[in-house]
Design goal:
36% strand; 10-stranded mixed beta sheet; 259 residues; mainly beta; 2 helices; single chain; 4-stranded mixed beta sheet; 16 strands; globular
Length: 259
Amino acid sequence: MSIFRRRKDDADTADSGTDTGLDAVDGTEDADPDADAPPEVIPDAPVDRSTGPYDATEVEDDDGRLDLGALRIRGAEGMELRLEIDQEQQHVVAATAVFGESALQLQAFAAPRSGGVWADIRTEIGAAIETQGGTADLEDGPLGTELRTRMPSAGPDGRTVFAPARFLGVDGPRWFLRGVISGRGAIDDAAAAPLLEVFRETVVVRGSDPMAPRELLPLRLPQEEATPMPAAPGAPDGGPTSTDDLNPFERGPEITEVR
């Protein structure tokens, strides 16, 4: 397994949603006073986590997984793990498992005791992608409801191309784990299979500190330090200032350690 560190610098998601309606009164049509209210989001039924992803209380501490703080990830043959760094704050903000032409970005967030946040988050992600001209569809997947998207961007010849992605989400005890599959795995179930297994095998370490809902759980570098690689010519020097600036479809400068 290889370990990389990299920087992200593009916007991720925003929040929107509308609904409209008409009432007929005395032969006239008036706007519904609740016309601009966002559609109601129905919470998901609890996902069976007996086969993962796991809470730290459900597994042994020293189980061979790579300890990244809030996430413990099990390595697999042929997998590379890339740790994404906020260059300004020098914090690890995401981990990405790569198998060939497919990748899975992992992030864990705090969630309220009262319930999960995945239903709300995927609604916001889908609305943001559709606002930018993309598509977003809900599908039943092996880990519950997932969001399959296509994000438009300009191709090398000036034509619009669409980058597919699968957004996975599982609500745990006071945490939420999000995964974003990109590359071939976003459209090919066989290519996605090892990434789904990594997602299932991931352990979330929530900790006991009070945190606001949706706050990113802190990650850290593994104990063995990585050896810096020179950045590509012309690479930007700045980094993202928050997790909202992360874009799972873009790749930045890397620092590599080979295990």
